[in-house]
From TrEMBL:
Its EC number is 3.1.26.4. This is ribonuclease H. Residues 43-110 form the RNase H type-1 domain. It comes from Obba rivulosa. It holds the Pfam family RNase_H. GO terms for biological process: DNA replication, removal of RNA primer. It comes from the Eukaryota. It catalyses: Endonucleolytic cleavage to 5'-phosphomonoester. PANTHER family: RIBONUCLEASE H1. The keyword Magnesium does not apply.
Length: 110
């Protein structure tokens, strides 16, 4: 059986004291994410953006994929783009999201 760290004999060991210290220093997932990305604020009006991707002639050597990003009627940021690399509709969808994220204001909620 595994001994409990609360047993008196286990607490007196320098190695166990060090282990206890290390375990107390471990951050939970929320702290790790906050350290990595910074604090999260949800106090802005969200920006609505729509994305789409598609592929013509999928599975053929003539396949052509594209991506579109729509910010709203007559918005300057509305864009369409050719998808680099392998031409599939899945890559078109993902590339559209990537384009939208790269164009988005990082200080606004999406």
């Amino acid at each position: 059986p595994v001994a409990s760290l609360t047993e008196p004999a286990m607490q007196s060991s320098p190695l166990n004291a060090l282990l206890e210290h290390v375990l107390q220093c471990v951050e939970d997932d929320a702290d790790v994410l906050a350290t990595l990305y910074g604090p999260v604020f949800c106090d802005t009006d969200p920006v609505h953006v729509y994305t789409d991707g598609s592929c013509l002639l999928p599975g053929t050597s003539r396949a052509r994929a594209g991506a579109g990003v729509y910010w709203g009627r007559n918005a300057d940021r509305n864009t369409a783009a050719r998808v680099p690399g392998l031409q599939t509709s899945s890559r078109g969808e993902l590339y559209a999201v990537l384009v939208a994220l790269s164009m988005a204001d990082p200080l606004r909620s999406l």
